[in-house]
Amino acid sequence: MAPYRQGGNSLDNEAFRAHAHQLVDWMADYLETIEERPVRSRVAPGEIAGALPPAAPGKPEDFAAIFRDFEQQIVPGLTHWQHPSFFAYFPANSSPPSVLAEMLTATVAQVAMIWQTSPAATELEQVVLDWLRQMIGLPDGFTGVIQDTASTATLAAMIAARERASDSLVNDLGFRAAPRLTVYCSAEAHSSVEKDVRIAGFGRSNLRLIDSDDAFAMRPDLLASAIEADIAAGARPAIVVATLGTTAAGGFDSLRAVGELCARHGIWLHVDAAWAGSALILPEQRWMLDGIEFVDSFVFNPHKWLLTNFDCTALYVRDTDQFVDCFAIDAAYLRTREGDRVTNYRDWGIQLGRRFRALKLWFVLRSYGLEGLQAIIRRHVALAGKIAGEIAREPGFEILAPARLALFVFRLHPPGLDDEARLDRLNEQLLEALNDSGQAYFTQARAKGRYGIRFSVGQTATEDRHVEEAWALIRETAGPLIAEAEAA
Ligand SMILES: *Cc1c(COP(=O)(O)O)cnc(C)c1O
Asked: Which pLDDT score is estimated for 233?
């Protein structure tokens, strides 16, 4: 078939139709045979870039040639996040309805910046985020907006908190006019918190990392003393970021204990539940919302554990007027006759142009229903608990962070080998060997200073057998490493 010309004419559309069918077949084959591929890509750094031409083509190229290169040059450089033996990081799970909706999103190519540029994208986002709010048990009074990532959503919350704490002085006059503002989170909080602190202009030296307890939860007593010390030194505490489900070890900060302190001192409380938030669709996991009445903003990622393709982050805020005031800019060319009667999501965060991300969420929520989604997450939680129990009972292995939801951390700890530095090295070797095998993919964590392997369950297609096979692989891989360590 001829290369594409300018688009829009019937000949091009005919080609588009044929290519689209071809790709759908490839997509279904990919998902069907994904287990035959190594989970983590095996390419070396520079290998992909080195195989590609150094400049863009001058003349149009044929679709067949582009697609052949996709298969031959690009696919080997993919790490397969949708592989059911993907236990690294947190899941970024997708699902067939989400993929189909993404095809439509790309085709209609909306820019959902103001109501008028896409009434459907705006109003579907309002409706679907309220469905989602009810599904996760957030009380009335929280209003949602989709952001690209939790990092960005937390940044937006920090900016709103900054303005509340400075009476809008930072937005108006800059930091020099405002008191010194301080930020708090646990030492287990996600790295995006520090990044956001820098970007929002607080300054890294005004971020307090509060130590956590044995269960990896922020210690409220230490938070209280840090806040009091800052106030005594003339600073104004602006925001506490509490985490539900910390990234390394799955700790849960107490919203009640942290929230009472925030209420006492008039501090914005933001909750980062990026991963764990999806589990709130299970009524039996709502314990983590105890104290939600103290919370000003709450973020979680349907793009992690709710079968919705990356990117799709749900941010909920309580005082939407104050939030929108931080971001609204009255540009003449963006004014429309609907005025205040509609929501213009450009005023709800950093981006002006926004993708139509509510569509895939709508497809997912309708295709599975609340009960279908609950069954999947419940299965993941049960699988993680079961395998953590088996590992805990196995001589020579040790749990460093017990299973919380679908995450735990373990390490190899052969009897008689107690040197921490050697144990760290042994477990690093184990991790690399597991990942090099291509049969599973894990990442590492430090739990209370000890190097461990994170076991995170949550890919849509992960079943009992994948988790059991991973555990068998761990035992098999550990055998020769233990022998080597004993000989050394
Ligand atoms: C994954 C994660 C993030 C970052 O999520 P992005 O959407 O990639 O920015 C933030 N916080 C926690 C607790 C996470 O697990």
From this structure: 98
Atom index in ligand 1 nearest the CA of residue 245 equals 13
For 185, list phi and psi in degrees, rounded to 5: -160, 170
Name the CATH code of domain 13-38+41-78 (choices 1.20.1070.10, 1.20.1340.10, 3.10.180.10, 3.30.1490.100): 1.20.1340.10
Match 């291509």 to its residue by tokens. Answer: 438
Cβ–Cβ under 8 Å, residues 100 and 309:
no
Spatial neighbors of 213 by CB under 8 A, at least 6 apart, are 219
**What is the domain partition of the chain in residue ranges?**
13-38+41-78, 111-355, 369-487
Is any atom of ligand 1 closer than 6 Å to the C-beta of 79? no
CATH architecture of 111-355: 3-Layer(aba) Sandwich (3.40)
- Which residue among 241, 275, 299 has the greatest number of ligand 1 atoms within 8 angstroms of its CB, and so is best to mutate? 275
Q: What is the pTM of this model?
A: 0.96
Pocket test for ligand 1, best of 147, 188, 192, 405 (most atoms within 8 A of CB): 192
Residue 22 scores a pLDDT above 60: yes
Task: Report phi then psi at 411, rounded to 5.
Answer: -150, 160
- Chain CA centroid to CA 24, Å: 27
Question: Residue 261 and residue 380: Cα distance in Å, rounded?
Answer: 34
Q: Please report which confidence band the pLDDT of residue 340 belongs to, taking 50, 70 and 90 as the band edges.
A: confident
Residue 288 near residue 260 (C-beta atoms within 8 A): no
369-487, what's its fold?
Aspartate Aminotransferase, domain 1 (3.90.1150)
